[in-house]
Amino acid sequence: MTETPAPVQPQDGGASNAKIVYILYLVSLIAGITSIIGVVMAYIYQGDASDWVRDHYRWQIRTFWIGILYSLAGFLLTFIGIGFILLLLVVVWFIIRCIKGFQCLEKRQPLPDSGSWLF
């Protein structure tokens, strides 16, 4: 009887893929489509990652969807004039979340509060 070998987990627990997602998110500020590629990667790789990297994937997925929500609100509010300020704040929020996540990833530790809506 042959046994199926267990899937091989990457040496870094999937941290290199999470790093790529953060980079894709930051590049999306110039070329917007890369954030979609990043969130798809986060969904694909989160199941095979170690626990602390899975926390980063959760943070990345939430960053994408919450960013979409905030951007939609900002877009709708541009018609009354305050949306431009909100859209600027969304960009700053997005950059801060990516940098914070990247720093924790480099330290090889999970995020303090990956379920947060802010920072």
From TrEMBL:
UniProt keywords (A-Z) are: Membrane, Transmembrane, Transmembrane helix
Tell me where on the tree of life, at the top rank, the source sits. Bacteria
Membrane-spanning parts: 20-44, 64-96
Pfam families the record matches: MamF_MmsF
What main location does UniProt list?
Answer: membrane
Topology within the bilayer: Multi-pass membrane protein
Cellular location of this protein?
A: Membrane
Name of the protein described by the UniProt record = Uncharacterized membrane protein
Organism (species): Marinobacterium sediminicola
